[in-house]
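Reply to dn_fold:

You asked what the input looked like. This is it:
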Amino acid sequence: MNTPLLSVISPVYNKGKYLEQTIASFRPGQESDVELIFVDDGSTDHSPEILRSFEKYPNVRILTQENKGAPAARNAGFEVSTGRYIWFFDADDYVNEGSLRTVKAHLQNMKAQLLTADYTNVTHDGKFLNEVRYAGSRLAITRKDKLLYAYLAPPYPGNKIYVREVIDRHHIRFADVRLAQDLNFYLKYLAYVDRIEYVQESLTNYRVVDGSISHSYDERLLEIIRSLEEVDDFCAATLDEARKRYLKMAGYSHLIYQLSRLEQVADEQLRQRMREALTEKIRQTRKPIRCIRPYERFKLAKLDAYYRDTVTTLR
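and this is what came back:
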């Protein structure tokens, strides 16, 4: 088999309810230049049986491991992948008909370090909620400000395709954190991005499922602090002054978001401890940000307003 154009890597843990639709949406056996890698992370439902039913296709590879978490599963999948481009994809989401054709057309001659697109939020049973558009490519702003927009964009992995050579050269991997796993990888990767290519259509469907880590409301919310600190350590010797500002602004945004979720934490004492920890980290992150260009100041002002509104709501 020739080197694939694209490797799709998906961690699987108890996704039997949605897994068959996810795999089928990638047309297994029909896309010889697309490698599909599914890593069973110790599932206890019928996910392993579904995965085995797709092993008959030559472009499908199934890995199994004891439960180590999604970051370890994604890293394991990457280590055995061979594609020139890498698409990390959640096992309960799915692509639209024709999405692979569109993606491959862009990848054939892509000069950018990142391909991104719009995506659609859907309910657990696939009903439309809203479309998330990557407006950064359509804004009348400078190239550097478009990079800032990328730092502030949602870190959802299903609408982003990475260049394998960049990941390998800079040893970028998913960190062992319980929250903001995709954000952690994305921010580390952006340190090496100078150009982004954009597909102006919705290619993937993000399934909003209650009970996932991203929709949990407990002490795990504080993992955002550890995740961002790991990014800071990784990028410390790499970033120019502009990217340092962008990284701080991204951290500021995501810390405020986690603060806004504290209303959902039932235990009052735990909620207060978490609020104090997040508020202190927000203060430390916001203080050194000194914006230069007008668009930077505009986005920072919006983040400051977001923080004020969040604090008011929590009172």
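The first helix runs from residue 19 to 25.
Hope that clears it up.
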